[in-house]
Amino acid sequence: MSKRVNGEGPCLVVVESTNGRIFGCFASAGFCMGSTYHGDATSFLFEIQPHVRVYSATGLTQNYAYLNCQQASMPNGLVSSP
């Protein structure tokens, strides 16, 4: 997926999980491979199944879209789940 979205401009990603949940994101400036964030507060996350919900940016940081397949650890501002 990273090769298809890298540098292509605004991007809508929709995923269906193995248990039937449908969710995704809109990246306003798209994804660009590297160690910096891209986008702005018009980027958002969403889910369609089991409920329709939109998760807008909080404005607490300027971290919107990040794509770095070469990174060995999570960048500052991202937290991995155990």
From TrEMBL:
Coiled-coil stretches noted in the UniProt entry, renumbered to this chain: none
Cytoplasm in keyword set: yes
Database matches in InterPro entries: TLDc_dom (IPR006571)
Highest rank taxon of the organism: Eukaryota
Membrane-spanning segments: none
GO cellular component labels: lysosome; membrane; nucleus
GO terms for biological process, alphabetical: response to oxidative stress
Domain TLDc span(s) in chain numbering: 1-82
Subcellular locations according to the entry: Cytoplasm; Lysosome; Membrane
Pfam families tied to this protein: TLD
Annotated keywords: Cytoplasm, Lysosome, Membrane
PANTHER family, per database record: MTOR-ASSOCIATED PROTEIN MEAK7, NUCLEOLAR PROTEIN 7/ESTROGEN RECEPTOR COACTIVATOR-RELATED
Protein name, UniProt field: MTOR-associated protein MEAK7
